[in-house]
Amino acid sequence: MKGSLFSGEHMVQPVMEAGMSVENAKCIKHAVYGEMFARQGAMVAYRGSLKFERKGQGVGGMLKRAVTGEGLPLMVVRGQGEAWFAHEAQNCFIVEVETGDEFTVNGRNVLCFDASLSYRVAMVKGAGMAGGGLFNSVFTGQGRLGLMCEGNPLVIPVSAQYPVFVDTDAVVGWTAALRTSLHRSQSIGSMLRGGSGEVVQLMLQGEGCVVVRPSEVTPEKEQRR
Hints:
- 10% of the residues lie in helices and 49% in strands.
- By secondary structure, the protein is mainly beta.
- It has a single domain (16-224), classed as 4-Layer Sandwich (Double-stranded beta-helix).
- Strands 1, 2, 3, 4, 5, 7 and 10 form a seven-stranded antiparallel β-sheet that branches.
- The radius of gyration is 19 Å and the shape is elongated.
C-alpha cells in the first residue's frame, strides 16, 4: 500500500531523538537507545534492533504482590530502535517525574517508563480499610512515565485551601506529597435509605495534582484485565 494514500498526520514519522512521546491518543512511542520498561504484552509494533525480555519480580516481589494485590508485570526492552505500546485501546498520556518528586499511581494504569525511573509498591497513607487497603506503585527519579486510562484523563490541581475528593475506583494517580485519607460523604441514615452509591472517597490535601479517569472500574471490568 503506497504511503501517498495516507495524510501526513497519520504517517509514522522517523525518530528525531531518544525518549518517549505520544504517537496518538491510543499509543505511546519510545525511541530506545539502551533500555526501557513496559507492561508485558503491551508492544504493538517495533522497528530496529530490539529485544524484549520478561522482568522477573524475584521472591520478594512475588510475596509483595501476593500480599498487596499490586504489581507490575514488566518486560525490559533493550537495544536501538523504536517501539509502540498500547493496551485495549485505552487513552495514553505521559507524566514527567522530576528529581526529588514522587508520583504514586495504580499499577493497572502503567504502560511504560524510562529506565531512569524506579518504583516501589506502597500502601496509601490514611486509606487503610478493614479487610484490605489501597496500594499503589510509587515512581521516583527523573524521566517519563507512560500511563493509560479509559477516556481522557482529568488533571485536577490540589491546594491547601481546596482539597479534592475522588472516587477510589476512578483515581489514576497523584503527586505523592499530597496527604490522603478516606472521607465518607453519606450519613448512616442515607445509606439505610439506599444512598447515592457514592459512599467513600479518597480525600487529597496539600499542594499538587491528582489524575482521574472519567470511568469507574467495576469488578466485571477488573476481571477482564
